[in-house]
């Protein structure tokens, strides 16, 4: 391996979860050293866990040789531990996620079997959170949105939309159940 010139990590937050990647760069380009992915649901169960991303042995050796050959600013790097800063970045990213606009087409990642198409058109954003929102039918039946969608965070926004090839009925979706098309 040639001399490694840079090592960094990248956190990417999506509506479905968080990925953390460790990269290195040398004269031949960028290499993904290690990466992990968590859904927001998985992260709830990982509270307090310490995880790390690791450099490959080749990159570790290249960094060690580089350090031995000159007195540059680069030093061998031990495994990078994930800590509370990651959780803070996740939470701030989750809160700042862009909500769709009326007319936007989204994809239902858990569409019902009767639906001919997973795409829905947004008709509005509810004032209630998923924990406050109640689904009701014309025959008097009702249940909280979080009962119908148990993986939904009670604090997430509720998006009202209708299936593109449906019966024009408006359904309520927790924000995490819809993705951009």
* Category by helix and strand content: alpha+beta
Mass-distribution shape: elongated
- The radius of gyration computed from the alpha-carbon positions, rounded to a whole number of angstroms, is 22 Å
Low-confidence stretches: 71-81
Q: What letter string, H or E per element, gives the SSE order? A: EEEHEHEHEEEEHEEE
Q: In angstroms, what separates the terminal alpha carbons?
A: 40 Å
Largest sheet: 5 strands, antiparallel
Q: How many discrete structural domains?
A: 2
The amount of helix comes to: 10-25%
Mean pLDDT over all positions = 79
If helices are DSSP runs of H or I spanning 4 or more residues, what is the number of helices? 4
Report the count of strand segments: 12
What strand line-up does the widest sheet have? 11-10-7-6-12
Range of strand content:
35-45%
Write structural notes for this entry.
- The strands form 4 sheets. The protein has a 5-stranded antiparallel beta sheet with strand order 11-10-7-6-12, with no helix packed on it. The protein has a 3-stranded antiparallel beta sheet with strand order 1-2-3.
- By secondary structure, it is α+β, with helices and mostly antiparallel strands.
- Helix content is 19%, strand content 39%.
- The chain has 2 domains: 4-95, no CATH class; 105-180, no CATH class.
Topology:
Blueprint: E1 4-13, E2 17-26, E3 29-39, H1 40-45, E4 52-53, H2 57-69, E5 80-81, H3 84-95, E6 105-108, E7 119-129, E8 134-136, E9 142-144, H4 145-148, E10 157-163, E11 171-174, E12 178-180
Antiparallel strand pairs: 1-2, 2-3, 4-5, 6-7, 6-12, 7-10, 8-9, 10-11
